[in-house]
């Protein structure tokens, strides 16, 4: 069956959903293909289910802190199967609820894998579409691991569906996923090891803060191995053997190996060549307005586009911007200078703007305010052992260039700093504005 539409959207995730809204409100006819659950990674197998697990682990963390402070004498335990059932009470309704909103919006939802036939034509199963505009919002998937035993490695999707936890887990890679999952699993009694190649873990974060997180993670009993690259995984009876380095040296055995080695744009199988859509390693090549550089009918944003971050709010912001340009003929761009990001460890690691290294490379004249927060009452109240901050302030404008926090409530405080950066507030304004006390955000005045 053939159908012509103003816009065909590939992928019903955050980015696809944002574009659909703008286009339908402008009266465009819109069809949208989705090969998996509607809603995409974030609500089904990413941020949302992870946060449910994290919140449960936070209870254990809080209890450990209270025990350390001599306030309680028991340590609670997570009932993992119950936690999984609880998690599913969040994830299972998502598909039907997104389906309903897309239906109410007037989007023609097509279940199945979309593939290009030509520059303006696509198929999904036995349906064929001709579209004046096409939006690619296919997200990312765990990147292919270049070794034989890769099929033995559990992905983040698999981890978030585990009915039972194993006794030991090795995480490949020391980025967001490994640290977040290890902080959860370790608090459920799993022995965890994180293996990171190169000279440091959490590379997207400020070096000093990342070191603090590694130290706190080791305090928790998680082994963090830096400078080793996982090059093979093999089955040995009922265990898995992890090898590292070019010579495939045996490093350790464990019950499960989890993929935290990065995510790649989900573009294979789309037949981009047939549509003349150029791609780079990081995704569809787009101009500053999110239009394909090689096929003007095609637009792309979110995790599958060659843009700087793989984060939900960024996918949303980029896709909304792409839609304004595509539907309303605007020429707007995205400002990435104040994008906050959090690694949900316990306590969390949060960051916005430039790291100290990046600011120094740019030759910026700045004041660096940094310190240890472990002795502050906010840390002592919850028994935090390690906590720190670093704020970079431009000497000439007094504006925040970057902010990096590791501590209680960092995941919330960082948003105040992002707002301050985005709206050009000065350090003095932040320091003197009367904020509610005693709160995490109030403590900004002690940092500056
Ligand atoms: C474990 C985990 C935790 C995360 N935690 C956070 C967090 O705490 N905070 C945060 O900001 N970000 C987090 N992220 C990242 C966040 O989930 C992504 O940045 C965000 O979902 C990207 O949105 P998107 O719309 O670009 O892609 P997606 O949400 O991945 O949507 C793409 C959709 O396209 C579909 N699709 C792909 N190919 C086709 C095809 N050929 N035909 C039809 N449909 C197709 C997919 O099935 C998917 O539904 C996390 C990611 C993971 C994996
Ligand atoms: N809280 C959040 O916002 C959140 C949470 C999870 C994921 N995400 C998004 O998903 C993306 C992917 O997350 P991720 O944790 O998989 O990737 P990541 O990019 O954060 O970290 C991957 C790390 O694995 C290392 N690595 C790769 N192959 C290796 C090997 N064979 N041996 C040892 N180390 C290896 C890389 O050098 C890199 O440092 C993130 O970049 C982020 O944008 C965000």
TrEMBL record:
FAD binds at residues 51, 303. InterPro entries: FAD/NAD-bd_sf, FAD/NAD-binding_dom, FAD/NAD-linked_Rdtase_dimer_sf, Pyr_nuc-diS_OxRdtase, Pyr_nucl-diS_OxRdtase_dimer. Residues 339-439 form the Pyridine nucleotide-disulphide oxidoreductase dimerisation domain. Keywords: FAD, Flavoprotein, NAD, Nucleotide-binding. NAD(+) binds at residues 173-180, 262. Its cofactor is FAD. Disulfide bonds join 42-47. Binds 1 FAD per subunit. SUPFAM superfamilies: FAD/NAD(P)-binding domain (SSF51905), FAD/NAD-linked reductases, dimerisation (C-terminal) domain (SSF55424). Pfam families: Pyr_redox_2, Pyr_redox_dim. Residues 6-319 form the FAD/NAD(P)-binding domain. One of its GO terms (molecular function) is nucleotide binding. Belongs to the class-I pyridine nucleotide-disulfide oxidoreductase family. This is Glutathione-disulfide reductase. It comes from Desulfocurvibacter africanus subsp. africanus str. Walvis Bay.
